[in-house]
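Q: A reviewer asked whether we had any structural model of the full assembly, not just the individual parts. We don't, so I'm hoping you can provide one. Inputs are below.
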Amino acid sequence: MKTKYLFWAIPLLMLGACNNDNGEYIDIKDNEPLSVTMPSNFPPMVYNVEENPPTKYGFELGKKLFYDGKLSANGFISCGFCHEQRFSFTHHAHQFSHGIDDKEGTRNTPSIANMAFFSEFAWDGATSHLDLFPIIPITNEVEMGETMTSVLEKLRADSQYQKEFEAAFEEGGVNHENFLKAIAQFMVMMVSYNSKYDKYVRKEDGVALTEQELQGMHVFQEKCASCHTTDLFSDGSFRNNGLPPNPSINDIGRAEVSGSGNDNYKFKVPSLRNVSLTAPYMHDGRFGSLESVLNFYQSGVEDSPTLDPLLKTEEGLGISLDDTEKLALIAFLGTLTDDEFINDERFSEY
Amino acid sequence: MKSLYKLSTLLFLFVSVTSCSDDDSSRDELTGSGMVKIEFDNSVAGDDLILGSSYTNSQAETLTINRLNYIVSNFRLTDTQGNVFTYPKEAGYFITSEETGNTEVVLMDVPAGRYTSMTFGIGVDQEKYLLGAEGQGDLLTEAESTEMMWSWQAGYKFLNFEGTFTSSTVPENTNFQIHMGSHGSSLDNYKETTLSLGTEALVSDKMTPIIHLVVNAGNILDGDNKISLTEQAVIMVSEEKSPKIAENTANMFSVDHVHNGDGSSH
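A: Here is a predicted structure for the entire assembly that you could use as a starting point for your response.
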């Protein structure tokens, strides 16, 4: 039996060797499917992995693209420039996303953790498919300022990329479809599910929350969880949370996409995973701390025709919170930090 | 037994009647499969559309059209028996453009038959969009090269209609831009239209009909719904106006004539 295998192995090796003349040949047979994490405490995944099953080479290609400045007009702004892993893939300390030539956008970089569990993307839901999302920052003139066609031309001119595309996908080579699939594979694998909170709810490793964290969790469930639902901590809907519009920008949010005045100033409810790491907060990054965020909900909510009804009750506008509750909430939100995720080498640039 | 006899007589009569009326040469049996060519002949107010020339519409606005691109999709052909042939979705999206002269759609491998009506969509349906990267294939590439990628929302412009205009209150030449497409998940502007062909379009391995459509670009703003450029000259995402433009656009197509033959000439 052994000899039979050996007999076949020799011509196979010879074939491989023939193709392997420049040292960088990647054998497509080595490509293997990756398993996507579906945590038991999460709702079902929205992304259809059967249509774009992550593979070793697809994921690696997606990661390389994610960190490659070639995707921008000046060659320096990669996706990872604004989406930094140690801040759960947000742009820490930057109110707005900086793009090429130091141009500045009008919105704060959102996290890309757990995107496979959502059905609308960007603060205003400009796209409803994760695969297509990268087109938006790549072509935005204040972000990466490129065209897809030009990005693909640059990649096609790079023989290493050609090989990596060939290895990752059975057909097509360097094209729109495979480019978007590769980046999506990288993003789909980014699942943050191992925070202290997760281990507590899944009863793993005997993890317990402190008394203050537990108090915060109860306040959260009572006063925050109608929008920040499930263990994704977002229902994915678009809501006006009463943030007074910044008059110099007047970003109307979801209404930009829908064209409907009923959607004025509505933005996607963000997930709160790793929220202790993702300052500044709100779609325009106006708040530097979680204290400021909670103070805003307590006393800064502004009424308007599209204000979310949940923030306008008989008791008044906003959410009533006392100082003890605020401290407890902040302690609870700290349990959503997932150190394994932000240190996961599979996602890291270097 | 008696009824069977009756039935067979009827059947005999029916066969002989149909065969009697079947003496025209085009009534020969159509076999195999062939192509259908559809010519989108862009026009305005009954005249050929010439980019850069002017015309005045019923709202007393004078338009100089510089761009007319639109996506047509999901073709379905219905034959005399009521059978519907649906063109394969993966190959079913076409970008037409007056400026590049790319105004003909060719459907391949259409089963032989006598087709009497045609249905198609204007734009890209949500089902297609939600197929993600896999489902878009080369359409994104093509859309970007023809100004039909709506990049800020990672989608498609179904219609890109641009130029300049003047009116009694806007005397200076002013740019107009009409970009119409779906609004994310909140408003689906994909529309379909069904056209009777008037003449049977004959398809076989020897016959390729050319369906010649006249497309009245004037209808986009000046159809059943009246859209005033004086009021708003740049319309891209409007909950009120975009669906009206989509409806006007879907109604701008009519069948002028059908050429039956080998498809080589009009």
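A: Points you may want to mention in the reply: Residues 1-23 of chain A have pLDDT under 50 and may be disordered. The beta strands of chain A are 238-239, 267-268, 312-313, 316-317.
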